[in-house]
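User: Sequence in, structure out. Go.
Assistant: Echoing your sequence, followed by the structure tokens.
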Amino acid sequence: MQILTPESSRPMPWANGLGSTLEIATDAHSHHARNDSWTWRLSIADVPTRAIFSTFTGINRWIACLHGDGMRIERSSVWTTLPHSGEALAFAGEEIVTGDPIGESVRDVNWFLRRDLWQGGMRVHRDSRSTVVEGAIVVIHAVVGTAGATIHCEGQITTIEAGFTLIASGKTTIECEQPSVLIIAWASAR
């Protein structure tokens, strides 16, 4: 298990040059990555205006609305409103996608997996119930301004506070004593 502090997050420019994202966790320096690039990444981005998403060839992507009134996205001329909780919307990184924030202060969360190496998913957990997730990689981020969570994994018990991120593997049980907003992402090798 590894716990990342809020200071370990770093701003990164969008690939399309139209904004920036806060990179929460990545494997850019692991044995899976080549040439210091990532094979998985969790990030949070503010979306101030309508824009076409950056494309990521060979990447599967999940997205959900984290803060604000919401965001609509257009894919193949069909508009969809992003979920605020539960399972995130999944799509291929090559797709042409336009995001349109509803109101101000919209923030989304993104989970990226290199398609040839990983399969997985992401959800936003917004309550005090316990939940279980399993994967070769499990990333749990406690959103700033909410309660943290107690994590049971790899025979260990730890607590993550708001703004902190846990990276683990295997079956992971998440217990919330009070309502929390957690980003839960996972991946297993193909």
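User: And one key feature?
Assistant: The chain has no helices and 18 strands.
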